[in-house]
């Protein structure tokens, strides 16, 4: 609730008291809203002028009919330069569909004990800290914990990436007909896509591949059934109006005989206006449009592919697994299609994104090229007979990957970086030979362009090539590029954050419970926020059309060294850090179209409009207004120094593992030493102490032997299976 300004209240009260028919033409400022010469808005003001307070939500509903309104039509954006508005990243806070939030709260999480869900979510967060990559669910409890703890984050990052893609290529050009999503969760990509496109959009085909426990597919089916896009055409009521989040969608049919149905209601209310049903749902009878599967398709053609934490499942297989999975998913992309890759906002996620980008663009082969000229991808071209031959006739099965270090394997791990480097060189030589083949250059019909976030096709200035280098002492302060988005917490997320486990920060990353004297039982968050920030890395690429004119234009641009018809937005740098605001000037950290990190300073003397827009800019925006001062930023990273530090740490780990093996062997020998056994004259306390110590030693010995056996077993299993 907000209060009217004093002078406005007096004016309205007097006007209504002395002349009820008075026409008000002056401009009234209420909070942040400007109402001017709008009869509908003034009717609302006149109705509530006799009250001391007005309902802000009611006023906002009348003033803004759609949350995705055009920024150019809003008075609050009138001071921005049109180029600045064009470069803005979608900045509204993400709200999960209330119908989806309700079904998760009432029909999924309500069936479990909340403490069990929090404990399972805590265990998963501990696993993420140890391994840096996501894993599939293996039990029903893990499925529910994944939905409660991770679904909102995945939905937010995918929603923001889709909104960015839709804005950059234009709403009229973003109409994919065949969609594929691959992930561990309940089809968060399809849910976000449905919300972005609106309830009336119905593509030809939607496939969701969910890897992990079968119960996740059931829960995904239940959640998707709450979206209007997922109602099959044969179940739609003809000539009805479906109310869905204040948007009315009319369904038409050519069959006039069906219009005489008298038993069907004229308006089907959304679940928000009906009674909430709590409990288990018979999912088997539910029908949806999206095809749910647990296996990755071996072939096909899709206009939009969404990958959520799918390019790396085992840290020890970086970068070979990233290369092979990227190659396969590119083989499924149709001409003119788009591929969205979502990874975690940590060093591992950043390096996965950069490795996939390097494999697709191969910037080392085009050092002098400027602009975003689509790069050839010979592995996917129709002139290559070996395109994804590995996946032509067989479906890809999903394999769970787990890696445990063994002290005896540390000698081999020291040379792992050399193997990775040789693997990079092999791929590099292969692509270099392909791209320099003049005989097939004009016949290549597969070209790739990056839409976001990169504004260039050069080598990333922050890429170091190995996520493990960030764990060294020299690599802990290395910078990475990640993005953040604010999302409003639904009820089930706020319930998850209660209690001691997840309400507050942990003292150590592996504690799994809040800090003592800070975490409280009960509500657990007396001053808690109703929103949270999602940290993620992403990459959006586009496959160019493969008609002759497009291919000819790409080849001509490559010969000239720059694109002839460049999109204006491709020449603007992207802000990769929070703007630093000072009195009289603003500092922006940007990644330029030349592939360099620079610090741009925009003082008030440079331009009042640029100064105003810079103060309102956020991380992720494109900056089009230039700067008065441009300071070069981060230069080349000494990767050799990081590699040397990593090898040194591996040697220390080997010594520590050997020292532990030696202590365990000493404990075994102490069991056979009769001299330490107390005699009959010893007191009862001494005997109890001796037994306690022996039990602790035996526990350590058996634990060590158990892990050693599992390591050997897991090592043999990984050697006998393919990478994918």
UniProtKB/TrEMBL annotation:
It holds the Pfam family Rsm22. GO terms for biological process: mitochondrial small ribosomal subunit assembly; translation. Residues 555-576 are annotated as: Disordered. The keyword Transcription regulation does not apply. Residues 555-572 have a biased composition (Basic and acidic residues). GO terms for molecular function: 4 iron, 4 sulfur cluster binding; metal ion binding; methyltransferase activity; structural constituent of ribosome. It is found in: Mitochondrion. GO terms for cellular component: mitochondrial small ribosomal subunit. Keywords: Iron, Iron-sulfur, Metal-binding, Mitochondrion, Transit peptide. InterPro entries: Mt_RNA_Methyltransferase, Ribosomal_Rsm22-like, RSM22_mit_bud, SAM-dependent_MTases_sf. Mitochondrial ribosome (mitoribosome) assembly factor. Binds at the interface of the head and body domains of the mitochondrial small ribosomal subunit (mt-SSU), occluding the mRNA channel and preventing compaction of the head domain towards the body. Probable inactive methyltransferase: retains the characteristic folding and ability to bind S-adenosyl-L-methionine, but it probably lost its methyltransferase activity. This is 37S ribosomal protein S22.
